[in-house]
Fold these 2 entries.
Entry 1:
Amino acid sequence: MNLLQFLIRIQFSRYCLPRVKAYFYYVLLICVLCVKTEVRADNDYAIVTYPGVGEKVLSVNSLRSIFSMHLKTWPDGTKIRVFVLPDDDQLHQSFSKEKLNVFPYQLRSMWDRLVFSGTGQAPIKVNSSEEMLAKVASTPGAIGYLWRANISENVNVLQIK
Amino acid sequence: MLSLIGSFSAQAQQPNQPRKEPESIQSPTRLQTSELPAQATESAEAKKKPGAISSALNWWRTTELPGDLQIHGFASQAYILTSDNDVFGNSDDGGRFGLTEAGLNASVRPLPRLQLSAQVLSRRAGEGNTGTPRLDYGFLDYRLFSQEVNQFGIRVGRLKNPFGFYNDTRDVAFTRPGILLPQSIYFDRTRNLGLSSDSVQLYGDTTLFNLGTVSTQFGVTLPVVNDRDTESSLLAGVRVGQLNREVSYIGRAIFETNDKRLRLGVSGIWLNTSYDPSISHNDRLGPGALQFTPVIFSAQYNAERWTLTSEYAIRHFKYDNNFNLVLPNGYHLLDNQNFYGESYYFQGEYRFTPKWEAIVRYDALFTDRSDRNGSKFAHNVGGIAPAHSRFAKDIMVGLRWNVTPEFMLRAEYHHVNGTGWLSRLDNPASEGPLSQHWDLYAIQASFRF
């Protein structure tokens, strides 16, 4: 992918600048490339659930509501159990910034407010991807996130729309 | 288009980081994945040294508990030194370890929609709080309606009063900005009055045009008024009789954008209380009643490294004419008093790294906004209380070090002009007059799990 982009850049400087028409095509192409790369970055990890969870697709709003610990039950009425990696974990950071669009420190302060006012519970902390996989695979109603490489058939992959 | 090209060439020049840059291109509102510098290395370090406590905590975390039981707690100790005047003990005489806070809470979800929570709190802070553990909150929370982002439920029991950004968790050092909260709004001397109350509360979260969510809480409460500090603040001294609990109301609405960057809130309390004089002690005070109705406006902006917060409160005090407290000069101190207090603060926090944070704040209190320098009051009471007891302007700087996620150290310095929020119990008249201009230095260690 990078080599391709590099080649495009060379082509870009050689041919494109003097030609207005071509200019537009290349911008279009770049956009397409970027979208493709975006998808790939997002696909490096995924939201996973306990296999018994009926949901296959989740809205961004629901995902945000679950991880801010406000939405507590799946549509079928069963408990949602949220698992997270430590605040400084790279996957946790990518997940919170890219999927939830909030900074990890904001999640932490939201959870603290719930826990210490009694109005909610904190997500359950796991220390590694292996533990995340084991917990999500074995805890009814569980939701978490995993690098693609760590995902096994013991968990469901959730689509976020 | 130009920005697209710009980002594109930047991306091509960094062949080793293909994942990072394109995020901002496809959706500009999205956050950069750039990490704060200290994170990666320090996490590795923290993982290498699991002390006895953290391994015990890990065991605790990883062991399945029935009914989704969760137990959390905190303990903090501060050392406070003042140039003049006392804050939580005899702090102007070499400093004191006068502020100790510890709490333990448990929550359980016996049913998917039902949560029970309780917290016991011990707070040792000057004359007003001896450290005797008390029930801070204890209630049940039932979710009546739940659909994606829209939630609606009811809470019954002893609840933390929802007002401002910080009141709900004001005793947890980790959750508050600074060792001392902005005293103009979060008075420590009337804290028990404001802290929690026995109530029935309705709450709801709802989306607002896909921009964000509005969280509202509304409660009918019986306030906790039976402590000496509250009494001395509301009735100008510790009295032999008793303040009664009367039905009061509290409400708060907070709007947050989806990315939680912008938070706007408004909260209000309608507090009613009345005084029962003690007949056997020949009480100087009559059976008066008073209403206290503060309204607070809150605003916060959160960026990756910095957070700006400001809150403004207007506090209406209204006393009826039955207190009959007459001063030697013939002035009725409480009767028919009807005035508005005003408070506000501006605060900036900056995160150098996730471990190091700095804070700066300006906090101002005017007990009566039509008498900002207190001169009218001082004149009325014939000099028994100074003008500077009616205002306080506090400028504060502080530093916070998050040593581990569970352990935190911090230090702060305040320069205060005025004595408006000082506890009268900690600064009795017998210790001589208060100083208008004074400094406060404080350090604090805090642990939580």
Note: Confidence is low (pLDDT under 50) at residues 34-40 of chain A.
Entry 2:
Amino acid sequence: MRRLSGSYRSALIIGVQGIRARKLRTLLSMISLFLGVLAVVTVQAGASIAERALMSDLELRSGYDGTLIIDVMPHEKSPAIVTETVKGSDAVALIATQAIIGEPGVSPINPGAAPFDQGSWGTTDICDDSGNCVPGPPTGEAIEVALTAVTGDLMTYRPLRHVSGAWLDFSTVPSMSPRLVINEEAAKGFQNHQVPAEMRVNGAKANMTPQIVGVVNDGDVQPRAYVRHDELTNWLPAASMSDPNMGMPLQVMTTKGSAVEQVLTAKLRGAGIESYANLTESRKQMEDQLKLMRLVFLSMAGLVLLIGVAGILNVGLATVGERVEEFALRRAVGTPRLLLAGIVLAETMLTGLLTAAAAIGVGVAGLKVVSMVLGSREPLLQGVQFPWDAGVAGIIAGIVAGVLGGFIPALRAAGIPIATVMRA
Amino acid sequence: MTQPIIELAGITRILKGQEEPRTILDGVDLTVHPGQSVAIVGRSGSGKSTLLSILGLFDRPDQGTYVLDGQDISRLPERKAAKLRSSHFGFVFQRFFLLKHLTAAQNVAMALVNGQGWLPRRQRRARVLEALDQVGIAHLAKNRPTRMSGGEQQRVAIARALVRDPRILLADEPTGALDTETGTAVIEALLSATHRGCSLVLVTHDRDHAARMGRTMSLVDGVLTERVPV
């Protein structure tokens, strides 16, 4: 490791001596700076936590950053082309359809797989004599879900959050009783409305008896179920899965530039099927959203920090005024002007660093307390860790404040004439 | 004879910024050889401290030449002057200028921690203790100035001046704040440095102390003349 030069070491040694000799003044400087650094740490920590949460939500809905999503327009040949192309690759095809789970012939309580709390879907309004209406109990006896058949492990591209049970197992033989993983909205429907479990899908040869194996949070407000594609095709001919009249979309998730992308695009073009590729850029999207918010808060934190800088400047000038003889004497024994300025800057920078350490400590402790107290109510704060970049921001803020606050006192110290010691 | 360590020729210093410029030093010539002790006496305001400031590179002459150890340093930039102050000079002032928050050893070490080279802590400590030992107060190394007498404090200041083995010691009325007995002891400590080849320029009002120096110069109205002992 390269060792510090004599000047830097001298400045540090003398700076530490100065801080130890003037503990109260150092403390006063720290108090004025503390709030500023804490504001920077808090803003940065808040922004980082919000960024993570936002990123996590975006990834939940749109997939991991860099995922290429190819939307294939409905066509009778599209399911066959897509499933054949992605077979044996890392790419995952998602084929969407609708399913009604309930007794044969009964209507769903949420037609069109509508969210359960949205309006009065599936209910009949009950009105009093004066014409005031309230939603009545659901009229149907089945639950309709958006059914997504997946050809592989979707989790590779979309971080669905596990809630209970298990995720789809692709290593086993396809079951004749399709295994479903439902989202939280669908789970809410099944919890509130007891319906016999038989699944109707348009175009299927017969009704299926599904097994609900798990619940995930997919960020979707619509009740949805995920099923293995091969388990669904036991009952549903591939052609019915992309009925142009039904407008059911087909999606392929892969990585940009992969062989699947090139082969699939070529095959679809050859068959005259339109497709659109979109690259998931969650981070970019999120940064755009956060940029303005972060700028506003950092500006506010910067203002608070400036007050801290003014405090350091004030105390620094008073301290240099008190130490005129010391600085003149140091010059007399050969200390260059630059090092005198360095000594003052070292003191203010060390003060800034100490303050930053204290502010970061308070930030870490505060976040822990907030997480413990509010974690049960706010999932975002559950087990949240103090972001390292907030710590770095605090240290930088402390050093910058130290340099800014110490700059003018350093110039004053460097300009003290040596003759001061002669005239004393 | 050996080459002079200090040669001043025609040094003039004029104080400006007042209604009329005032000549503080008027064509001062001074030669000091290694190991030589020189006393400069004169009334208050005669320019003794200004002369010492120029000798110690705190101030620059308006005219004349200053040759230090064979090198003309009359117009030296501050950065180089700081280096020379560190390598060639030791300073002792009337007020001791010890930092109260530091121990005697740390006060002496101040001259070593000045950005002009770097000594490891062990070597630094050895040099400090040696300097304190030279002035007979090594046992007070860990004491703070507030717990020392005036004489002891001035010895610490002398140790601080000696710790870099200077070629020249400049002392500005070092006994001014001390009683006669303690002052004599301080002069002894300063003179002992000349036995090791260090030159001493002492500004003093005390005729007895001046008489103990090898030469005595008198500064009257900015003009320096040699006093011949009678």
Note: The mean pLDDT of chain B is 90.
